[in-house]
């Protein structure tokens, strides 16, 4: 630091507040230390203000080691703040980024008095001849001290080592860049091609872009549109109905002045991409024809899978909002400046919580993205192309990126060995989104269900649960539990309390716990269309269970979890290999074991008079039940424990219990015993952090070795009203504790 330097005192602050004064003083030397590698600097040639000249950006980026520069936040015109020198190119670039983040309002009107803008040089310059610099707004946050708010980032590259024709984000979409990405994918990516198994529905319609009319055809390449309907902003907006469809089939029938702007912009995008046919549900499904509508909904996966490309209007709150960069100029653009042989470019990003980014919050659009092979996203700031393997951005400052498994819409991911693994992931994502109409809760997931389990949804699913994985699927829980989960029923919708749909329509995300699954303890039956016939829902050939299910079933039989013990001879030895060999000798698979070992509830009307008053979505079983009290988990203030007669925790309820916990742990309910019914077997994976229960609650084989997973019983906490039962919460109990509890067999009509 030069003694008389007016800039050094306010030029830096430590990124880590624990840095000592000596480190900070060393940071100030970065602005003045001699460097033979840096070219002479001419303020007049660069046109920089004195503050930006003092920064010595090229030296910081190319000469100062990454660990050294990452210790500091470098302040930008800290004294002048937004009244920066307008003639300075660096200041103008920062002002451009601030205005895009906050609008035209001065920061002095928005922030507390004590604030500044800072630069953080985060990535390595030498590896790719470029770096990314983050811009932060620092401000005093009451008594909490200083806080940082991310404003944006800047791409920094050596002018001599970058492409001269590099594309960037302007006011209009860069169609050549996007077409090149799509063509490359079409030519090179085998995994992005359609497998040809999709079957478009009868009467399939498309928009003929050139002739501006609706045509019925299924033998042409077409693009599909995924967008947010929102509210009709104009009464005259075009929509296909029984009354209008014939007029729309005539050439010129789709009048531009009455076309929803988003669909009109999608038609223009088709022209830019060299495609003449567009599928948009508002115009291609007859909205007031229930039969046509359901026929198309059942084939939604085929429609989006067959599309050569899906256009995603990812920004906007209605179908009349339009697409930025098509019908209107984008307000967020990239600017470039050259400083000391460096090219500085502001990177374009989407706002994290923009209220108009509704597409990624809607249930229907999630399904559309999953079913699609190729997606072209349009936000308010940029466009990007996403396929099964990569993401290509409109600007070349964001390099091609491989798909992240945590954000991809892929139907099946590597490592998802079971179909249910993918079902679980998609259901968690889907249920985190919103539906404009609760009646769509099943329909907006049918396409994904068809892709995973096959096209016969009505035969393969029962109120949202796959029959072949019915017992796994019953083990859902609400993630937050802010609202009470209860049966919902109307003239158009039935959501049983045991179905995840009852949670989703309450605004709850649905999750599953990461446990091994060993099979069912009871059979569930339901009415069929024939009132004299009942279907066993969870007795399906092909149901998968996890390794060592034979051992755990033997333990459950020994613990009295079955009404009739089918394998007395097997109980003489608990050696895992012996049990496995004997199971395989008697039962070739899990399905054959269930059919012989678990009694069918029989004719429900003979077992429980309540079945005579069952409505839609009720299921019946005879299950083992026990009554337990609830209490606070001792290890944490979060969660609800299941208590035995000695007030010892023997299990817990699953998921978020915000609402139920208040009721269950109320001192007035301390002595209340809740009814729990056993539904299936699972196992807790033993982790390094697992406590003493790894031995006290576990079982051992003949050699004395602990099992790999601690056996537990999955239970439903139910409430009975007028002889009918309703699911309240999901829980589990250690098998060791369930085996010694007071239990009984009870008929359960669950709705």
From TrEMBL:
InterPro entries: HET (IPR010730). Residues 222-368 form the Heterokaryon incompatibility domain. It comes from the Eukaryota. This is Heterokaryon incompatibility domain-containing protein.
């Amino acid at each position: 630091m030069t003694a008389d330097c007016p800039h050094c005192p306010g030029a830096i602050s430590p990124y880590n507040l624990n840095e000592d004064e000596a480190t900070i003083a060393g940071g100030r030397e970065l602005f003045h230390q001699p460097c033979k590698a840096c070219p002479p600097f001419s303020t007049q040639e660069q046109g920089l203000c004195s503050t930006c000249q003092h920064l010595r950006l090229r030296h910081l980026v190319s000469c100062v080691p990454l660990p050294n520069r990452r210790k500091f936040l470098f302040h930008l015109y800290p004294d002048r703040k937004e009244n920066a020198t307008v003639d300075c190119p660096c200041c103008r670039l920062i002002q451009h980024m601030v205005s895009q983040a906050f609008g035209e309002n001065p920061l002095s009107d928005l922030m507390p008095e004590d604030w500044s803008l800072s630069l953080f040089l985060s990535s390595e310059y030498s590896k790719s001849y470029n770096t990314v610099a983050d811009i932060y707004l620092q401000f005093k946050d009451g008594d909490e001290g200083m806080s940082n708010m991310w404003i944006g980032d800047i791409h920094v590259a050596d002018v001599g080592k970058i492409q001269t024709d590099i594309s960037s984000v302007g006011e209009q979409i860069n169609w050549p860049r996007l077409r090149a990405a799509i063509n490359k994918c079409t030519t090179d990516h085998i995994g992005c091609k359609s497998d040809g198994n999709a079957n478009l529905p009868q009467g399939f319609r498309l928009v003929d872009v050139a002739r501006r009319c609706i045509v019925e055809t299924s033998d042409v390449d077409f693009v599909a549109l995924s967008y947010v309907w929102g509210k009709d902003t104009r009464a005259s907006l075009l929509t296909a109905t029984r009354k209008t469809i014939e007029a729309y089939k005539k050439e010129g029938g789709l009048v531009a002045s009455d076309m929803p702007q988003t669909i009109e912009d999608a038609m223009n995008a088709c022209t830019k991409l060299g495609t003449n046919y567009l599928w948009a549900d508002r115009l291609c499904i007859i909205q007031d024809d229930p039969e046509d509508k359901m026929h198309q909904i059942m084939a939604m996966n085929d429609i989006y899978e067959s599309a050569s490309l899906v256009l995603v209007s990812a920004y906007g709150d209605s179908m009349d909002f339009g697409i930025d960069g098509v019908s209107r100029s984008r307000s967020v653009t990239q600017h470039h400046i050259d400083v000391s042989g460096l090219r500085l470019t502001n990177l374009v990003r989407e706002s994290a919580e923009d209220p108009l980014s509704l597409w990624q919050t809607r249930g229907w659009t999630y399904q559309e993205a999953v079913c699609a092979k190729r997606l072209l996203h349009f936000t308010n700031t940029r466009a990007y192309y996403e396929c099964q393997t990569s993401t290509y951005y409109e600007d070349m400052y964001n390099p091609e990126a491989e798909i992240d498994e945590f954000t991809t819409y892929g139907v099946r991911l590597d490592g998802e060995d079971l179909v249910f693994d993918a079902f679980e992931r998609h259901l968690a994502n889907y249920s985190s989104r919103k539906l404009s109409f609760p009646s769509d809760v099943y329909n907006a997931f049918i396409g994904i269900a068809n892709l995973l389990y096959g096209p016969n949804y009505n035969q393969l699913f029962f109120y949202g649960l796959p029959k072949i994985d019915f017992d796994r699927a019953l083990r859902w829980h609400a993630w937050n539990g802010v609202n009470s989960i209860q049966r919902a029923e109307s003239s158009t919708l039935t959501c049983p309390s045991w179905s995840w749909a009852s949670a989703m329509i309450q605004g709850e995300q649905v999750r599953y716990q990461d446990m091994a699954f060993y099979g069912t303890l009871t059979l569930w039956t339901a009415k069929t269309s024939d009132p004299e016939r009942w279907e066993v829902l969870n007795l399906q050939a092909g149901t998968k269970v996890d390794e060592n299910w034979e051992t755990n079933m033997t333990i459950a039989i020994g613990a009295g979890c079955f009404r009739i013990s089918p394998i007395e001879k097997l109980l003489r030895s608990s050696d895992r290999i012996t049990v496995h060999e004997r199971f395989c000798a008697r039962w070739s698979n899990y399905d054959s074991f269930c059919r012989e070992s678990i009694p069918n509830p029989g004719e429900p009307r003979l077992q429980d008079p309540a079945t005579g008053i069952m409505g839609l979505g009720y299921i019946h079983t005879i299950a083992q039940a026990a009554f337990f009290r609830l209490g606070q988990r001792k290890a944490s203030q979060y969660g609800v424990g299941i208590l035995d007669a000695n007030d010892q925790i023997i299990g817990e309820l699953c998921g978020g219990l915000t609402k139920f916990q208040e009721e269950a742990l109320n001192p007035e309910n301390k002595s209340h015993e809740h009814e729990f019914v056993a539904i299936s077997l699972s196992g807790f994976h033993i982790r390094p952090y697992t406590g003493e229960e790894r031995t006290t609650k576990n079982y051992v084989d003949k050699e004395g070795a602990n099992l790999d997973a601690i056996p537990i019983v999955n239970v439903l906490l139910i409430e009975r009203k007028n002889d009918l039962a309703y699911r309240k919460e999901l829980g589990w109990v250690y098998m060791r504790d369930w085996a010694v509890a007071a239990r009984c067999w009870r008929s359960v009509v669950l709705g």
